[in-house]
Amino acid sequence: MIAMQxxxxxxxxxxxxARVELPPPAPRQGELVLRVVACGVCRTDLQLCEGDLKAxxxxxxxxxxxxxxxxxxxxxxxxxxxxxxxxxxWLASTDGRCxxxxxxxxxxxxxxxxxxxxxxGGYAGEVAVDARFALRLPAAFDDLAAAPLLCGGVxxxxxxxxxxxxxxxxxxxYGFGASALLALQIARSWGCRVFVATRSEAERxxxxxxxxxxxxxxxxxxxxxxxxAVTFAPAGExxxxxxxxxxxxxxxxxxxxxxxxxxxxxxxxxxxxxxxxSVASFTRDDARELLDxxxxxxxxxxxxxxxxxxxxxxxxxxxxxxxxxAAVLCP
Length: 331
Prior knowledge:
Elements: E1 2-6, E2 17-21, E3 31-41, H1 43-50, E4 65-73, E5 85-88, E6 91-93, H2 99-102, E7 113-114, E8 126-130, H3 143-146, H4 152-163, E9 170-174, H5 178-190, E10 193-197, H6 201-209, E11 214-216, E12 226-231, H7 236-244, E13 246-254, E14 275-278, H8 284-296, E15 303-307, H9 311-320, E16 326-330
Parallel strand pairs: 9-10, 9-12, 10-11, 12-13, 13-14, 15-16
Antiparallel strand pairs: 1-2, 3-4, 3-8, 3-16, 4-5, 6-7
Helix pairs in contact: 4-5, 4-8
């Protein structure tokens, strides 16, 4: 099968992903093999390819927003059959036994493994996945529309929960890429008042079209203090901008697996029980809740489609902000 494989992280302009021929995976016990129909392109993939996110295994096939069809079912798997439609996201497996798993916070499991980081992902024709972590996808979404939900959608949903945003509250979204675009739709369905900060004039216009009450730059003060905020930009400075806009007792949820560093800031910004919380992946329950909610709202996803062989180009456009919502690869 054809795959786009990373062997040596380097700037995306140097095309670090190589087109290779790999043997099709065979399912081990407890696994499914999916024929990949679509795979979303995530900023985490870009950070892995460029070395900002340290590789855990090389070579590796990136990609963790996978929509596919079951091609093979491993021994011991129940509930799945050849021909079923399935999704796979960032969380690939956990030990299921530790204190974090048993208390419903499997995203914090020290033995967690991740798709496209610890094990080969969806930038390929086929992929083997742990059947326990495969996801049922709503019929309301076709394959291309479903792919962006499997990371940007789910992590955006968990970020909103971590921020404590509630109906009627003033919510700030800092950065307006694929994940924030979906989070805005969720927040609006909850009755939140949404304020968006982003560098891009085009993204500000899109945010207003989707129901944001205000849109400005990172350093612009929203017209009212925020009750909660989520930062999507991978820049520590943006976290401080969000904190400065926060009402007393509010929370900034940081939706990022990698930041370029958080600058020093005055304690006055944190005083009055303001808080900053990181968002570390998500649980299967988060994913199931989001997929159900997305079908009911319904969430609208927008995306640019690329052939699998153009994965480097898709990542380069993502880095430059030249993607309409999300990017999706099709083998």
